[in-house]
């Protein structure tokens, strides 16, 4: 970075403060809207606007040949104006050189007040600064890192103060010593709400997909203290192993899940089709298909007593003569 990025680094005048505010270099919470500046007289304005070459030379003297295209001039008040140039510097794409010049009424030339490198509308800027303790997120802690709790963390309470948890308070009283800090009532409530709303709470997709809950599961070990009324640790390696689960959480690996029906054994012995020999069989004529047998009609026998009597027809004389002829033959 060149040695003279900023000439007059410290903001000494209200003009620079307004310039920096206009270019969004101050934090929005600290910036205040400047009062409308009075316009310079025509004579002073001519002197201020005519100092373009003087402003360019001031940049060259402080930063070398880094001056780009001239971008224009704006008036700060009745005696000052700012000339802007595009900055040609590696790593400062979109930045601008701002040169503040001043002239009093009746002056025949302007005076350079300050040269500042400021970001332009298209400049790449760093994100807003966030305090370190606010940047740390769950999961950021790595092996070897040290993370101290916030000063006067409301989630913690001194160990000698009653926490409201009978098990902790009674045990500390009986033993005679305790931890320097213990979980406060606020910290316990926030923890319970966070666990209840997590992926191992009753509202998770896994819990909604089953009717069995962890409250009566043999793989769940309840926690000690007040949190043990709602939470436990799962000890099933096929499910939420080593995770804190809500009593109303559930999964398909519940200890009371019934066995599937059937023995599970195959009907036939398995075989390895990789050891089979494939043999080509010569094509043969297929035997003619036999016509399917026509099922015989089933005759229905009518009982004799129920069958109607059919009267015999009288025998004609011609038929009787024919019968006698046949017998004689």
From TrEMBL:
It comes from Mycolicibacterium pallens. It comes from the Bacteria. Residues 318-329 have a biased composition (Acidic residues). InterPro entries: DUF3027. It holds the Pfam family DUF3027. Residues 188-200 have a biased composition (Basic and acidic residues). This is DUF3027 domain-containing protein. Residues 188-207, 281-329 are annotated as: Disordered.
């Amino acid at each position: 970075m060149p040695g003279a990025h900023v000439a007059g680094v410290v903001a000494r005048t209200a003009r620079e403060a307004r310039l920096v505010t206009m270019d969004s270099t101050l934090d929005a919470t600290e910036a205040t809207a400047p009062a409308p500046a009075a316009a310079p007289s025509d004579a002073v304005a001519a002197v201020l606007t005519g100092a373009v070459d003087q402003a360019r030379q001031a940049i060259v003297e402080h930063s070398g040949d880094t001056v780009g295209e001239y971008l224009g001039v704006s008036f700060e008040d009745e005696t000052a104006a700012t000339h802007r140039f595009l900055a040609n510097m590696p790593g400062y794409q979109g930045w601008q050189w701002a040169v503040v010049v001043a002239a009093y009424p009746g002056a025949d030339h302007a005076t350079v007040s300050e040269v500042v490198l400021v970001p332009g509308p298209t400049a790449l800027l760093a994100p807003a600064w966030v305090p370190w303790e606010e940047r740390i997120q769950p999961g950021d802690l790595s092996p070897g890192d040290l993370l101290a709790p916030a000063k006067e963390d409301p989630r913690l309470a001194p160990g000698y103060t009653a926490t409201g948890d009978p098990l902790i308070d009674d045990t500390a009283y009986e033993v005679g010593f305790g931890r320097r800090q213990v979980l406060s009532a606020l910290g316990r409530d926030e923890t319970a709400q966070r666990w209840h709303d997590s992926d191992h709470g009753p509202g998770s997709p896994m819990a909604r997909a089953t009717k069995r809950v962890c409250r009566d599961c043999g793989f769940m070990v309840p926690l000690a203290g007040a949190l043990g009324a709602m939470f436990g640790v799962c000890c099933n390696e096929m499910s939420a192993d080593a995770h804190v689960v809500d009593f109303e959480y559930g999964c398909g690996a519940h200890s009371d899940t019934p066995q599937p029906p059937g023995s599970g054994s195959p009907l036939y012995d398995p075989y390895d089709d990789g050891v089979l020999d494939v043999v080509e069989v010569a094509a043969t004529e297929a035997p003619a298909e036999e016509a399917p047998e026509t099922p015989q009609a089933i005759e229905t026998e009518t009982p004799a007593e129920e069958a109607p009597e059919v009267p015999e027809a009288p025998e004609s004389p011609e038929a009787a003569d024919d019968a006698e002829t046949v017998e004689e033959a």
